[in-house]
Amino acid sequence: MATPERQWRRRGAAEPVRAPGPRSVIAGSAAAQALHPLGRCSPDGAAVVGRDGWLFVAGGSNDAAAQFRGLAQLSPAWASQWDALLERQRCHAEQLGAALATLVVPDKIAVLPGAFTGRAAGFEDRPIGRLARLAHGRLCYPLEALAGVPGAYLRTDSHVAPRGALRLLGAVLDQYGLPVPAAVTEAPTVDALAVGDLGVKFVPPISEVMTVPAACPHVRIVADTTDVVRQRGGHAGLVRVTGNEAAPRPETIVVLGGSGAYPQPECPGTLGDLLARTFAGVHFLWAPFGWAQTYLEMVRPDLILVQTAERFIVRVPPRDALIVPPGLPRAS
User: Fold this and answer.
1) What's the confidence (pLDDT) of residue 10?
2) Sign of the dihedral through C-alpha 44, 46, 48, 53
């Protein structure tokens, strides 16, 4: 999420949180509604204002709104390619002796349909419904878990809020037969008035108060190719490895996912951050719901998670999404 000039305070502190910049407006305020009314798109067309100040992704090559309305166009080979990928992942994880979990993060529109303008199609008519049928129980899509939590999504961001991320962590750990550690659920919190990745697209930007867990001092970055990959453009192939000597779980997990699962100590409360707090070693590969056979055979993790956002499932991930950088150490 974009967080320019983020201002922090401990929960309950007397000093009020200041806005991230003199010209931002608070989501849902009278000023925000006057400047950015219902249905208003950002100048770049990437975000749209919903009811009560909620912001949503608009348009784009994945067009979450079209998927929500059952209008997404899928390739003729979409179903067979997804079926082959899911089976390959299952078989390879079994060969490695690693427990495999899946996670498709429900789109913000699906979690907050009343805040979005437009009529929804039935679940079975949306791409996620078709994929769920193909998966035969192998797909985790925790819509009810998120919809049942007030504040599961951030108002000005396309990603889940820390409350929602905790539910996602629970959905992942449940597939491994593990509980959510108390050290994660009971972490102290701080408040920040900040601008999300959708709010920043408006002029003036739209901000909100975000309650997030305090940064975990035990999480460290062991290896990272973020800068190298981004210099080449994009994110594909990015690898970040974290270690946590005080982790409540001793396992090493490889996560093949997208931005929501990317561990960033400077952005606490994301799914990636919560995984780094939970496990002794996390190998994150920027390959949403992809696979990286050579890397997995090199690391031989205890656990594997394949994760993506709902709006990305209209494109089938490649069979092997990552070229493995040489000499990457294993977190311990």
Assistant:
1) 29
2) negative
Alpha-carbon distance 102 to 8, whole Å? 34
Amino acid in the structure at residue 141: Y
Residue type, 158: S
Looking at the chain, the whole-number percentage of residues with pLDDT higher than 70 is 90
Residue given tokens 């192939």 in the structure block: 237
Distance from C-alpha of 49 to C-alpha of 38, rounded to nearest angstrom: 5
Q: How far is the CA of 327 from the CAs of 42, 225, 241, 299, in angstroms?
A: 43, 12, 13, 11
Residue 60 has pLDDT above 80, yes or no: no
pLDDT band at 6 (very low <50, low <70, confident <90, very high): very low
Which amino acid, one-letter code, is at 312?
A: F
Determine which of 67-76, 81-90, 154-163, 229-238 has the lowest per-residue pLDDT on average.
Answer: 229-238
Under 8 Å between Cβ of 285 and 322: yes
In this structure, the strands spanning 239-244 and 249-257 are unpaired
Judge contact between 210 and 194, C-beta under 8 A.
yes
**Alpha carbon distance 298, 330 (integer Å):** 9
pLDDT value, residue 149:
92
Rounded CA-CA distance 269/175 in Å is 21
311 close to 106: Cβ distance less than 8 angstroms: no
> What is residue 314's DSSP assignment?
G
Q: In 3D, which of 201, 221, 220, 122 has the Cα closest to residue 156?
A: 201
pTM: 0.89
In the sheet that holds 206-213, the strands lie side by side as 7-10, 189-195, 206-213, 25-26
Asked whether 116 and 68 are in contact (CB, 8 A), the reply is yes
Residues 6+ apart with CB under 8 A from 50: 38, 56, 112, 115, 116, 117
Please give the angle made by the CA atoms of 11, 17 and 22, to the nearest 5 degrees. Answer: 165
Q: Which residues pair with 240 in a beta bridge?
A: 224, 284
Instruction: For residue 310, give Cα distances in angstroms to 61, 325, 329.
Output: 13, 28, 32
Residue with tokens 């982790």: 247
Q: Is the pLDDT of residue 125 over 90?
A: no
